[in-house]
Amino acid sequence: MSVNFKPLGNHLVVEPIESESRTASGIILPETAQEKPQTGVVVAVGSGLRLMNGTVQAMTVQIGDKVLYSKYAGTTIKVEKKDLLILSEDDILAIVE
Question: How many folded domains does the chain comprise?
């Protein structure tokens, strides 16, 4: 998926990966009982964090990385009927390999 905007500074756009709606035994979970997703794929990144001396620190994550982020982090937006999250790079906990 490509987005038609570029996040500023040390922000990035993540497409959450939805969790399974069934348990291992086959029970269908209602949406209210499901966990909020914490993993997603990076679809856009900003230029990086501007430091006090004026230089820009490059982003650690890149487009296409699968990441683990804080549970209630970011701002949810809807683009082309898809839910996306705009996060700060500080909200990223790990890159999943």
Answer: 1
Residue 59 · residue 53 · CB < 8 Å: no
Global pTM reads 0.77
Q: Can you tell me whether residue 33 is helix, strand or coil?
A: helix
Whether residue 86 contacts residue 9, with contact meaning beta carbons closer than 8 Å, is answered with: no
In a domain, 48, yes or no: yes
What is the per-residue pLDDT across 46-83, written as a single tens digit (0 to 9) for each? 999 989 998 989 999 999 999 999 888 889 999 888 88
Q: Is residue 75 part of a domain?
A: yes
Place of tokens 């497409």: 15
Range of the domain at 51: 11-20+27-96
Q: Which amino acid is at 36?
A: K
